[in-house]
Amino acid sequence: MMVEGVNLARICFLLAVAALVGNGLDARRDAFEGTIVEVDRAGGRLLLTPADGEERVWAEATRGDLRIAREGSSIRGEIFPYREGWRIEAVWPNDPMQNSIIERIGRRLRNDTEIRSPRPFRGIGESIPRFALFRQDGTVFESRSLRGNAAVINFIFTRCLDPNMCPAATKRMVRLQEAVREAGISDVEFVSITLDPEYDTPGIFAEYARSHGVSGDNFHFLTGPVQIVEDLKNQLGVLAEPDENEIIRHTLVTILVDPKGTIVYQVPGSFWSVEDFLARIERAISGDGTY
Q1: Element housing 232 (H / E)
Q2: Pick from 47, 58, 90, 107: most CB atoms within 10 A?
Q3: CA–CA separation, 126 vs 123, rounded Å?
């Protein structure tokens, strides 16, 4: 249909696009660095002070980011027009000391991976590599904090679409955590490292943990610089590559580490036995040398 020489369908299309832009769904995103001044969890927004000295701005935020936001903390992210105000996403901690720790330990991991190449894989009987990443609460997690405890380690990503891969692996990890708790064992840590570090921010993982019923301080979802994740994948035997349909096509492995930091058991896939791992955890903690 034409109205005064203008195609009505074209008008409707342009109006729809304008509505999307107005909702912030197709708006230009700008890099943001600054400080959280106030957290309005009821209103779902953060009061931010940009590092460049511009005036404060209220910005809507994701549930995960709101969950872990702390007044006075430094962050970086992407800010864009949204509805009648602003919205911030892709939020990362930006404390210089935290960044320095992760970068310093990351450089050592990179050097170690290069030295071990072309086959950097660590098998049973070897120690896990030292690393540091961000936890789902935005704090820095260092692998050396695992010493003295048994640890169960795997790799997942929150956008995984295959119910038999990451979702199944996370469900088993949660069941194992519950089984360990019921058995009265306290010296066990659970670690899930992202395969999608460009998307899985601490806030994304905070919401993921909540939605999967993860509780307690001994379950750590870790994310951070891409190169660190790549080095950890290579050293711990996980293959992953971008995929148009699955976002990331990857393998899975679940690793048991004893209190000395030594890899004592590993199993591929997501359908491992909770009972088997529980028994092996008990033997690893007892230190009797059988797993």
Answers
A1: helix 226-236
A2: 90
A3: 6
* Chain center to CA of 120: 23
- Give Cα 67 to chain centroid, integer Å: 15
Q: What is the dihedral of CA 280, 284, 289, 291, to 10 degrees?
A: 20
On whether the CB atoms of residues 287 and 150 are closer than 8 A, the answer is no
CA distance 63 to 86: 15
Q: Look up residue 271 and give its two tokens.
A: 């359908």
Range of the domain at 183: 96-286
pLDDT per residue over 101-149, tens digit each? Answer: 999 999 999 999 999 999 999 999 999 999 999 999 999 999 999 999 9
Q: What is the pLDDT of residue 12?
A: 42
Nearby residues of 111 by Cβ (< 8 Å), 6 or more positions away: none
What is the rounded distance in angstroms from the CA atom of residue 57 to the CA atom of residue 50? 8
In a domain, 1, yes or no: no
Residues 74 and 113 in one domain: no
Q: Which amino acid is at 94?
A: N
Q: Which of 93, 109, 124 is the last residue of a domain?
A: 93
Sign of the dihedral defined by the CA atoms of residues 177, 165, 201, 239, in that order: positive
